[in-house]
Amino acid sequence: MTRTATLKVPGATLYYEVLGNGPTLLIIPGGPQDAGVFAELSAALADRYTVVAYDPRGNSRTTFDGAPTPLDVAQQADDAAALIAAVGSPAYVFGTSGGAQIGLDLAVRHAQHVRALVAHEPPTMMLLDDPGPHVAANQALYDTYVRDGVDAAMGQFFSSNGLGGEAPPPEFEMPPEAMETFARVSGNFEYWLAHGMIPLSSYVPDVDALRASTPRIVVAIGEQSVGQPIHEMSLGLAARLARDPVMLPGDHMGFETLAEPFAEALHRALQD
Fold first, then answer.
1. Is 120:255 a contact under the CB 8 Å cutoff?
2. pLDDT for the residue 18
3. Which helix (H) or strand (E) holds 79?
4. Cα–Cα distances in Å, from 134 out to 106, 120, 154, 155, 228?
């Protein structure tokens, strides 16, 4: 049974969910995602890990003490470290997309809390030989948000990244839990566009520290992401770390669309 709880951290109260038994596995969501996106993945891993999924600061059921503040990767990593310390340290860590960026910062500055990190498709565009086109694309996305609003910007984002982000067709019946998650995550789009997208994508991992770090760092790429911008970015990080990337099932959202095979492949990546 999933257990829910909150943790007070400086400036916010984190909402998190715990499922299973075994060593701690912390899941760090990307962008506007929250713990609900990982329900099936958590269930598939609960026989091997105490799986902890949470809503990052700025998203869903995690609340600020006052007005929302811009996303800060180091602060987000501090939140993740506090959560690991509260639940059971050290932890295996799976971070996806912007959550992988947070995981990379966590592995450098809070290495004592991390057994191993699987960084799944981090948007490490600043490690590319020429990040200029990606920086320009992010600025264009932000400009669309400011000029035309959330829906237009998210449509632009999904289209340019080969992702399906539209609402399900009317005849498609989602389970109530999935509908609730969809509504929460959609409600996070504005915070991500206004305060999170650029800080997460412009974060520059400390490659030298990561190469020398005690936690093992695994760069993971979706098998179906080849040809997408995130594939190029992930390869850039792997090259800087001088490590071969691990391929995982599906695309950028493989952990949700192919939860069971993804869980098996993630388990192998964490333990190899």
1. yes
2. 98
3. helix 73-87
4. 24, 19, 16, 17, 12
Q: What are phi and psi of 142, to 5 degrees?
A: -60, -40
CA distances from 194 to 17, 35, 54, 134, 199 (A): 27, 21, 21, 18, 10
Cβ-contact 251, 162 below 8 angstroms: yes
Measured CA to CA, the distance from residue 139 to residue 123 in angstroms comes to 15
pLDDT at 221 over 70: yes
| Res 208 pLDDT > 90 | yes
Query: Which of 95, 106, 133, 139 is closest to 232 using CA atoms?
Result: 133
pLDDT class of 174 with cuts at 50, 70, 90 = confident
- 60 torsion bin: left (phi>0), alpha (psi -120 to 50), beta (else): left
Set out the domains of the chain in order of their start, with CATH numbers: 3-271 (3.40.50.1820)
Does residue 167 carry a pLDDT above 70?
Answer: no
